[in-house]
Structures are given as structure tokens and as C-alpha cells.
């Protein structure tokens, strides 16, 4: 039995309080989504109901906002990943003092407040007589989300063995072939991660979209407008659905990851067993047909 430790007790209590602090609002939100009360709360508990999910389902404005959100997010991914990849390749190829300067300039949009980016975007394009709309939301979001893609691609580039490129060039490959057959395949995981990050960064973005979206609204702007008009448990139902989708996605990903690890482990054990049998000169066992 472990001896009593005041430090261990404090750490355990802190972790419990931290987890409760994170989960308690989600529990209250989920309870309010199924409480038959006009006010979003769990006390007093009126009764279990699914009416708020029905009202959410019949809300056409919410569906339009959701469609706009997906369209904007996909467009942001299409713009941000190539821009971020190009920036990462440029920074990785520069070896002088300019590298730090370029890196700072390209990371700066992440540190810029969203309201500043939104106001700057709408003012700049108004000077060119371009009206506000979802197209400006895409451009405004891409201006800083591409920096996230750049960081992910740049981190992946650091693990690329430069000798592979040099060997390919020595063997007569062109720079385009090296890029297509060596660099790009190595960056596939970074492309996927950058696309996912860009998509969800766009979905949760509010400040830039609020200033640039014009008469069109995305899901975050829709929720903001509903809160201003008087929040109802319908918003709690929407939040609960989004949380459940996230949790299910995480569980499916973890299950798939563990299955892949088990499959890889079995393949490695089989390969090691075959190598041992071959090294000892023993006949391999084959299953009967």
C-alpha cells in the first residue's frame, strides 16, 4: 500500500476539479436540450422532451446557415492548404537570415485578432468595389488559416531526408519529378491534417465572418443572432448534436487507430517469426488446404 502523500492528494483533487470544470457546462447544456422548459436550464426540471430537436429540424434558417458554413469551410480548405504548402516550401528552402523574417511574416496573421482581420478585409475589398458576402469570408479566413496549414506542412518537411532529393537529382530526375514522387507523397499526412484543421477553424470562425459575410450567415453568426433575440433550448439542442458528433468521431478514430496498431503488430510478429525460421533453416509450417 502506498504511503499517504499530501502532494499526490492535492494533484488528484486538482485533476478532479479540472475535469468537473470542463464537463459540468456540457452536462448542463445537454440537460437543458431535453428539458421541457422555455428557458434553457435544468432547474427546475419540467420533464423530458425532444421538442427542441424538432424545432431545430424545422428551422430553415439554421439549415441555410449550416450549408453556408460547409461551403465556406470547403472553399477555405481549397485555398489554405495550397497557400500554406507553398509558404512552407519557400521557408524550408531558404537558409539565410531571411528565413526567420519570412516565418514571422507568415505566422503573424495567427496572432492578429479576428475582428481586425474582418474589418481589414471588408475595407480593402470595398475600395475595389467588391460587395460583402461569403466570398469575402473565404478570403478573410484563408488569410490566417493558411498559416496553420503552413506550420503543419513545415513540421512534416523537417522529417524529410534531404539526401533522398539529392540522390534523385543525381540520378537524373528533374525538380518536378522530385517534387511529385518524393516530396508530395511524404507530405500526404500533413495535407490531411491541414485540411481537417482548416475546415474546423473555418466552421468555428465568428469575427471574420461577422464583418465580411454581408446578408449571408454561417452557423456561428446564426447562433449569435439567436442569442441576441433571446436564447431558447433549441440552441442547446444544436450544441448537443455537435458535441455528440465530435465524440462519436473521436471514438471511431480511436477504434480505427487501435485496429491499425494491432494489425501492424501482428504483421511485424509474423515477419519476425518468418525471419527466425529462415535464419535457423527450419521448414515453415503451412496450414492444410
UniProtKB/TrEMBL annotation:
Classification via Gene3D superfamilies: MetI-like (1.10.3720.10)
Superkingdom classification of source: Bacteria
SUPFAM superfamilies the UniProt entry points to: MetI-like
Record's keyword terms, sorted: Cell membrane, Membrane, Transmembrane, Transmembrane helix, Transport
Major localization listed first in the record, in broad terms: membrane
GO biological process, one term: transmembrane transport
Membrane topology, record value: Multi-pass membrane protein
Pfam families on file: BPD_transp_1 (PF00528)
Domain ABC transmembrane type-1: 66-253
Subcellular locations according to the entry: Cell membrane
InterPro entries assigned to the protein according to its UniProt record, in alphabetical order: Bact_Polyamine_Transport (IPR051789), MetI-like (IPR000515), MetI-like_sf (IPR035906)
TM spans (from-to): 12-34, 65-90, 102-126, 138-157, 178-200, 235-255
GO CC terms in record: plasma membrane
Presence of the UniProt keyword rRNA-binding in the record: no
Similarity-based family: Belongs to the binding-protein-dependent transport system permease family. CysTW subfamily.
The protein's name in its UniProt record: ABC transporter permease
Source organism of the structure: Lichenifustis flavocetrariae
Amino acid at each position: 500500500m502506498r504511503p499517504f502523500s499530501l502532494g499526490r492528494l492535492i494533484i488528484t483533487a486538482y485533476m478532479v476539479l479540472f475535469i468537473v470544470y470542463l464537463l459540468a457546462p456540457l452536462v448542463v447544456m445537454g440537460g437543458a436540450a431535453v428539458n421541457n422548459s422555455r428557458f434553457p436550464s435544468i432547474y427546475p426540471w419540467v420533464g423530458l422532451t425532444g421538442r427542441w430537436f424538432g424545432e431545430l429540424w424545422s428551422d430553415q434558417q439554421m439549415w441555410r446557415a449550416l450549408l453556408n458554413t460547409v461551403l465556406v469551410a470547403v472553399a477555405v480548405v481549397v485555398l489554405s492548404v495550397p497557400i500554406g504548402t507553398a509558404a512552407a516550401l519557400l521557408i524550408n528552402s531558404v537558409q539565410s537570415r531571411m528565413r526567420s523574417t519570412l516565418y514571422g511574416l507568415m505566422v503573424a496573421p495567427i496572432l492578429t485578432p479576428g475582428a481586425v482581420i474582418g474589418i481589414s478585409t471588408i475595407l480593402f475589398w470595398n475600395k475595389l468595389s467588391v460587395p460583402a458576402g461569403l466570398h469575402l469570408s473565404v478570403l478573410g479566413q484563408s488569410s490566417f488559416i493558411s498559416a496553420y496549414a503552413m506550420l503543419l506542412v513545415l513540421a512534416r518537411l523537417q522529417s524529410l531526408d534531404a539526401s533522398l532529393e539529392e540522390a534523385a537529382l543525381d540520378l537524373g530526375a528533374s525538380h518536378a519529378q522530385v517534387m511529385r514522387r518524393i516530396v508530395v507523397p511524404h507530405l500526404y499526412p500533413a495535407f490531411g491534417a491541414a485540411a481537417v484543421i482548416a475546415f474546423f477553424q473555418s466552421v468555428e470562425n465568428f469575427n471574420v465572418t461577422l464583418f465580411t459575410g454581408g446578408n449571408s450567415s454561417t452557423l456561428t453568426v446564426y447562433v449569435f443572432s439567436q442569442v441576441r433575440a433571446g436564447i431558447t433550448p433549441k440552441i442547446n439542442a444544436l450544441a448537443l448534436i455537435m458535441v455528440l458528433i465530435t465524440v462519436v468521431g473521436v471514438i471511431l478514430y480511436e477504434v480505427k487507430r487501435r485496429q491499425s496498431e494491432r494489425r501492424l503488430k501482428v504483421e511485424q510478429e509474423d515477419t519476425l517469426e518468418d525471419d527466425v525460421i529462415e535464419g535457423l533453416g527450419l521448414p515453415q509450417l503451412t496450414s492444410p488446404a
